[in-house]
Amino acid sequence: MANKRLNITMDGPAGSGKSTVSKLIAKRLGYKYIDTGAMYRAVAIRSHELNISPDDDTGLEQLCKTVKVEFVDGKITVDGRDVSVEIRTPLADGLASVVSSRAPIREAMIALQREMAQVGGVVMEGRDIGTVVLPDADLKFYITASPEVRGERRHKERLAKGEESDLNQVIESIRERDKRDSDRKLSPLKPAVDARIVDTTGLAILDVVDTVLREIEEYKN
Ligand code: DC
Question: What was the pLDDT predicted at 154?
Answer without folding.
Answer: 87
